[in-house]
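Milestone M4 deliverable, item 7.
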Amino acid sequence: MSAELDALTAQVAETNGVIASAVTLIHGLRQQIIDAGTDPAKLAELAASLDASEQALAAAVSTNP
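Output delivered:
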């Protein structure tokens, strides 16, 4: 039973880390959009960064069902 509890505790900690990262991303996204304004290069860079973050989040969620 102790091994199962340890595994569950580790999984909860890892999931909480993923959630915290997502919250940080979402909070910063609004300001990044404002900062990019209408500059096409900045908007493209922001879109690429968002795509990378989305892929990392999807990978983290899929490995921690």
